Amino acid sequence: MLWVGALFGLGVTASSAGTNYAEVFSLPDTDSKRAYDLMRKAFPERAGDTDTMVWKTDEGTVRDAAVRSRMESALAEIGRMEGVGAVAGPYDARGAAQISEDGRIAYAQVTFAEQADAVPKALVQDVVDTARAAAGDGLQVELGGQAITRVQEPPTGTAELVGILAAAVVLFVAFGSVLAMLLPIVVAVFGVAGGMFGTQLISHVTDVPELASLLATLIGLGVGIDYALFIVTRHRKGILSGKDPEEAAAAALDTSGRAVLFAGGTVCIALAGMLVTNLRFLDGVVIGTSLTVVLSVLAAITLLPALLGVLGHRVLSRRQRRRLAAADPKGEPVSGLAVRWSATVQRRPRAVAAVAVVLMAALAVPLLSLRLGTVDQGNDDASTTTRKAYDLLAEGFGPGFNGPLQVVVDGEAPTGLIRAVEGTEGVAQVAAAPPANGVSVLQVVPTTSPQDVETDRLIDTLREDVIPAAGVDAHVGGVTAVSKDFASVTGDRLPLFVGTIIGLGFLLLLLAFRSLVVPLTAAVMNLLAAAASFGVLVAVFQWGVGLDVLGLGKEGPIASFLPIIMLSLLFGLSMDYQVFLVSRMHEEWVHTRDNARAVRVGLAETSRVINSAALIMVCVFLAFVLSGDYGAAMAGVGLAAAVALDAFVLRTALVPAMMHLLGRANWWLPAGLEKRLPHLAVEPKEEDDGTPSAAPDEKAVDGAASVVHGFVRTPEGDPVQGASVTLLTPGGRQLDRVASLADGAYIVAVPAPGTYLLAVSASPYGARAAHVTVGDGPHVHDVELTSGGVDVAN
Q1: How many Cα atoms occupy the beta-carbon half-sphere of 432 within 13 Å?
Q2: What does the pLDDT read at residue 425?
Q3: CB neighbour list of residue 670: distance below 8 Å, 6 or more residues apart
Q4: Averaging pLDDT over each range in 194-198, 348-352, 757-761, which range is the top one?
Q5: Sign of the Cα pseudo-torsion (181, 187, 192, 194, in order)
Q6: How does DSSP assign 524-568, residue by residue?
Q7: Which DSSP state fits 724?
Q8: What mean pLDDT is predicted for residues 555-574?
Q9: Which of 150, 235, 270, 525 to pair with 80, CA 20 to 30 A apart?
């Protein structure tokens, strides 16, 4: 009730206050920023968003009376609409340049009274409907611009709803219970809703871009569902082992809840790494996404346990409840594909590692041709009016018309500069505007499109050769120049950003697992995941592989903002999976000091939940392809690829394979460093839950000098599950007794060094016994059972 009341109050407050998102974009110490400052000085009154209406006739010209009367009537009607500031058409003396040379294409500029995000959607729709009504009989009318984009986007929430439904299917398959399926979704919705309302309120006191809300929803849904999944899985395991629901919830919170806190902290730290880039417009993104992650963690460790207590045994499926009532609780042994895969990795670590590395390297190859830039309406789907308007303008006025450059001069532009710019290779036309407030502006239309690499070269030529040769104080600005500068700034600061978040992640894992190799391995894996996922991005969005299938429009450069945002999210999520995987391995290592067993058991017991969590995130991220936003779709595909590769290839194949190859070196830490590092327990040792465990329970190991462990298998090498393994003194007194796991593994505690009798029996394989001599460390003893055989130890 406390969460419901808090969310309701926050929602009412946020709704009353509204949003005040600010698209503040500043690149200090760049040429485009200096051009922008001069433009503000020259034209301080320009505030409203300007969109474009473009039309083309199949026969005759746009000057024909039939075409002109229809379009003038439509333009006049749009100009009378409340909220439209001005309409500049081609049918007057000042608009002659708005008609193409062949006379078949013309455009008009519609300036609204507000910026695009503040223009009422109903007004934009009226403009679109009025323009479209003039079309027909060989006349095509299309519209482009930021405000127009809003009316062709799918309904708000479509991507989120599809992602949640896909996650629900995965959860139901994993849990087999509708109530258990709903729990992670409810927790994620509370966390995301709280984050969105909080971000709305924060937007009134600091600059927060609208992008922050989209990314917060994207990451909040993913981590919220995943964190709840880890806790619910541990809770169900506790109930199946015989604990009452309240005790199981407390145990789940004290184990998986700790790991969730640690994982959420790593995500926030990775997000905060964006601050080192000194790109101030990202500050709002950090605030919005971090707030949502924090609230998702709080919901997982406070709201979720309360819901678990209310549901009681109903969190189990009906089949599980019937089985629990009919028999003594023994829990659910780890079995199936996870165990078989874990054993395969142990048997063939080199082959598994080689295949994984080759796959990741092959996917990373396209990264070599990565080109950062801006996405515009030329990347929209070919069926959208914005894309059609973009193409018509390029057809009628040249590809560079959609991204003109602005050479801004502090003072009056000399004739020599104008002629020099006109004579520059790659310039289609130059229009000099009269000086305003002591500033002159040359509108330069390139011969190539805004996303063409030749346009970037033209900007460099103007800045490095043409303007210095003219000896004037001038700067190159415009959206295309800003995009180029942003890509350069991002590329320059990316190494510092990557180094920061890799270093912070290394320190956190060093504290958690008391090892130098584990965090070093994690860092390398994170870089591999980043390289491969960006390779996928380049192949899809820059090369165009599969774009038509996904319905994502036209290929182009990768959005300049994406590397920093995507890497911060990727590194944070990768750390989550590393923590959940290695924490179980570390627990087993502490008990047995057997690296091979620790890696095998850790992978077998965590791979299923990690893969389920990753599959949910992939569904949520891919759903944002439906958002209608090309940039959001790019982020969704990139993050989905990154999570899939990280979970399914790296964490379940390459990481365990490498840990098998490295052996005991995985857990090496210099003695001097061991003494100086503070102790950070990600997950405490579990108490005995009555289930056959890969490690001895607390009672068994209390006072034990060592352990005997190994596998029980048939002569063909198949594991024997449920075999009774008993450790006895030479005189026949029983010391410990366990049942072998699904992979045939067992472990029994030894009170002191010496010689003991180990007896193993399983139907229909008969029994086998042998003397084992145990020293100060763990003793490995594999047992082979033959059908009907009896082996007597002398």
Answers
A1: 17
A2: 93
A3: 516
A4: 348-352
A5: positive
A6: HHHHHHHHHHHHHHIIIIIS-TTHHHHT-----PEETTHHHHHHH
A7: E
A8: 83
A9: 150
230 token code pair: 């880890």
Residues 772/781, Cβ–Cβ less than 8 Å: yes
**H-run or E-run covering 269:** helix 245-272
Look-up of token digits 């092959």: 362
Evaluate the CA torsion angle 500, 506, 507, 509 in order and state its sign.
Answer: positive
> Whole-angstrom Cα distance, residue 761 to residue 740?
10
The H helix count followed by the E strand count for the chain is 27, 19
Query: Which range, 52-56, 233-237, 272-276, 486-490, is most confident?
Result: 52-56
Distance CA 363, CA 149 (A): 33
Are 387 and 553 a contacting pair, CB within 8 Å? yes
Distance (Å, whole) CA 442 – CA 408: 6
pLDDT tens for each residue of 576-621: 788 888 887 887 787 777 888 889 888 888 888 888 888 888 888 8
Task: Identify the bridge partners of residue 428 per DSSP, sorted by sequence position.
Answer: none
Q: What is the pTM of this model?
A: 0.75
CA-to-CA dists, residue 656 to 284, 314, 350, 506, angstroms:
38, 35, 11, 18
Which helix or strand (DSSP H or E) is residue 107 part of?
A: strand 105-112
Q: What are the φ and ψ backbone dihedral angles of 710, each rounded to 5 degrees?
A: 170, -155
Residue 497 pLDDT exceeds 90? no
Residue 86 one-letter amino acid: A
Residue 255 identity: T
Torsions phi, psi for 771 (to 5 deg): -80, 140
**Cα 66 to Cα 73: distance, rounded to the nearest angstrom:** 11
Q: Which helix (H) or strand (E) holds 105?
A: strand 105-112
* 698/749 Cα distance (integer angstroms): 10
The answer to whether the CB of 712 falls within 8 A of the CB of 746 is yes
Contact by Cβ (8 Å): 202, 291: yes
Q: Strand pairing partners for 737? A: 726
**177 touches 316 (CB < 8 A):** yes
The structure tokens 């180094």 sit at 499
Residue of 53, 48, 49, 62 lying closest to 129 (CA atoms): 53
Cis peptide before 184 (omega within 30 of 0): no
Rounded-to-integer distance, Cα 504 and Cα 507, Å? 5
pLDDT of 375 strictly over 70: yes
Q: Based on the number of CB atoms within 10 Å of its own CB, is 575 exposed (0-12), middle (13-18) or buried (19 or more)?
A: buried
| Rounded Cα distance, 714 and 491, in Å | 58
- How far is it, in rounded angstroms, from Cα 201 to Cα 473? 42
pLDDT by residue (tens digit) across 318-332? Answer: 887 887 777 655 555
Angle of helix 245-272 relative to helix 304-311, nearest 10 degrees, comes to 160
Backbone phi, psi, residue 406, to 5°: -125, 115
Task: Give the pLDDT score at 368.
Answer: 92
Confidence class for position 503, pLDDT limits 50, 70, 90: confident
Question: How far from each other are the two terminal CA atoms of the chain, in whole angstroms?
Answer: 68
How large is the average pLDDT for residues 351-357?
95
Query: What is the C-alpha to C-alpha distance for residues 427 and 446, in angstroms, rounded to an integer?
Result: 4
Q: What percent of the chain has pLDDT over 70?
A: 90
Q: Burial of 484 by CB count in 10 Å (0-12 exposed, 13-18 middle, 19+ buried)? A: buried
Contact indicator for 230, 256 with CB cutoff of 8 Å? yes
So what's the pLDDT on residue 201? 84
Q: Provide the angle, in degrees to the nearest 10, between the axes of the packed helices 178-202 and 158-175.
A: 150
Confidence of residue 195 (pLDDT cuts 50, 70, 90): confident
Q: How far apart are CA 458 and CA 767, in angstroms?
A: 83
d(CA 272, CA 476): 32
Strand order in the sheet with 50-57: 84-88, 105-112, 50-57, 139-144
